[in-house]
Design a protein that fits this description.
The chain is mainly α and 159 residues long. It contains 10 helices and no strands. It starts with a helix and ends with a helix. Helix content is 75%, strand content 0%.
Length: 159
């Protein structure tokens, strides 16, 4: 938990110290996949992309389903950032992941990335669909930004 917290706040030195402590003390086999995700995040934060990808792949190939889903998400996102994965391929990977994995931060993270990619592609309906805004939140969002509504027939359809 301390290592995860340090990573979340961007304290990669502190996270590295926690990892050294964990390695010195040892850890049970059942924590290995989750630790692989954290090692990947630490490596990514330190700019060691290849090490991060390796750790994410280890987690993705593990028997631990939550860690495997998180590993797949982070590997796909990093590969896309590095230019190793095309936009349509990362979208496909994330669509598959969100279909088979539900109900935690992994799904939310995948949906956030999908929404951003859909928006960048001009696929606004898909973007809103994956965000699944409540009717009230969607209406509030529309009224907050209605000046961005297109002029003409298309804009009239939205109003």
């Amino acid at each position: 938990d301390e290592m995860r917290a340090a990573i979340e706040v961007g304290d990669f030195g502190g996270a590295g110290d926690e990892l050294k402590d964990i390695e010195t003390i040892g850890f049970p086999r059942e924590l290995q996949p989750a630790l692989s995700v954290l090692v990947g995040r630490l490596s990514e934060g330190l700019g060691h992309s290849e090490e991060a990808l390796s750790a994410y792949r280890t987690a993705a190939d593990s028997w631990d389903r939550p860690a495997a889903a998180q590993g797949r998400l982070r590997e796909a996102a990093l590969r896309y950032t590095l230019g190793d994965l095309k936009r349509e391929d990362v979208i496909s990977e994330l669509e598959t992941l969100t279909t088979i994995w539900r109900g935690d931060d992994t799904e939310i993270g995948a949906l956030e990335i999908l929404a951003r990619l859909y928006t960048e592609d001009g696929r606004y309906r898909d973007s809103f669909y994956v965000m699944r805004l409540s009717a009230i939140a969607a209406l509030a969002l529309f009224y907050d930004f209605r000046e961005l509504t297109p002029i003409g027939r298309r804009g009239d359809e939205l109003r």
